[in-house]
Each structure stands twice: as C-alpha cells, then as structure tokens.
Amino acid sequence: MTITHEWRGDFDDDALDALHAEGFGGPAGRSNWRARLDRHSLGWVCARADGDLVGFVNVVWDGGVHAFLLDTVVAERHRSRGVGARLVAVAAEEARAAGCQWLHADFEDRLRPFYFEACGFRETAAGLISL
Fold this sequence. Notes:
Number of domains: 1
Order of helices and strands: EHHEEEHEH
Number of helices: 4
CATH architecture: 3-Layer(aba) Sandwich
Distance between the termini: 42 Å
Structural class: alpha+beta
Low-confidence stretches: none
CATH class: Alpha Beta
CATH topology: Aminopeptidase
Number of strands: 5
Largest sheet: 5 strands, mixed
Strand order of the largest sheet: 1-2-3-4-5
CATH superfamily: Gcn5-related N-acetyltransferase (GNAT)
Helix content: 25-40%
C-alpha cells in the first residue's frame, strides 16, 4: 500500500471529522474545516492510502517566523509506519519554504518518542494556561 502526503491537500470535512474522532476520542463532529484552515493556517498536510484520508496535521503560524503543529493524527491502522513522521517532515519543509524559522509542537508525555526521536524536535521549556 502506498501512502502519499500532500501539502494543502484536498479533503472532505466528514472524513477529517472521523479521523479526528478516532485519533482524539469522542464522537465525530460537524466541523467546517476548510473555513477554519483558510482563516488560521499556513497550511496542512494530508496523508492518503488508496484515496482514503489516513493522516493529517495542521500548521498554524504567527504570520512571521513561528509555525505551530496542531491536530497531528494518524489512523490507528497506519500508526508506527512512518506516516506521522512524514506528515511532520512535510509540514517542516513547507513552513521553512514560507520563511518560518521555528516549528513548535506541544504534546502529551506518551508522544515524546514520536516528536523527539522520529521527528527530531528538541526539548524546550514552555508554559500553558488552561482556559
């Protein structure tokens, strides 16, 4: 099976909702992803297997040198095969091409091996306020 990764790839809102529900838990919502991404994102990367959406990452930015990964998700049946690492690599390549100098990601502790080992992030100090 060939997995393809596409910067600013086309997607169906229902397919992205279902992928998010699988990856993050909870029922699939009815989001207008296109409007949200067009308004807030530098871009996004879609991973596909035989035409099906199996991975996604959103790249938001500050309009300058900082880009941020949000919603990195891979369908369970395609995890641990490099799909997510390639999503992040494409996101980094495209953010760099847009003039960004930094790519930020926050994540749960269980994902440290993915971000640090598979994707090459380095640990930094950061803060978070729950709103």
